[in-house]
Design a protein that fits this description.
The chain has helices at 17-29, 55-64, 84-93, 105-126, 129-134, 140-156; strands at residues 6-12, 33-36, 46-50, 72-76, 97-100. By secondary structure, it is an alpha/beta fold. Strand 3, helix 2 and strand 4 (72-76) form a beta-alpha-beta unit.
Amino acid sequence: MDNGTSVWVHAFSCDIHSVQEQLASYLTQHQLQLRPLSIEKPKGPGLVFFGELTFELYRFIEQASCRGQEQILVIALTSQPVSDEQYWHLLKSGSADVFRWNEDASDTMERIVAQLLRWIKIERLLNSPLVQKNLIGRSLVWRNLLKSLFKVFSVKN
């Protein structure tokens, strides 16, 4: 992640121009910047906006998240809420969380920023010299366990 401040964004079966302008402005206030997704090598946290749930969307999330290794926040631009079954299917595909863009955009943007800042903080902690120097092993399973522990710790504090 470019100094921990950039977030990639991608629209899947929807137009996000007006949403993206609002969001980019809001993120800038929190020292975060949007960048286009580099599909060859997705890296760092990302936002996926969708207008319709499709098999292709689930497959895209799986690939872009590197099977859950990268943090992706999926945001529904739909009139109806995402059902519990759809929510869990999105999580199984590799989404870290799923939001719905509400008419009160400021509330949604606050939630997005809070989530992104939490992920960036956890990633910085995981990559800090203290953790790297004392880390036993570097396997994906071990790193994911540490991320989970840091998430729990950050929510409690």
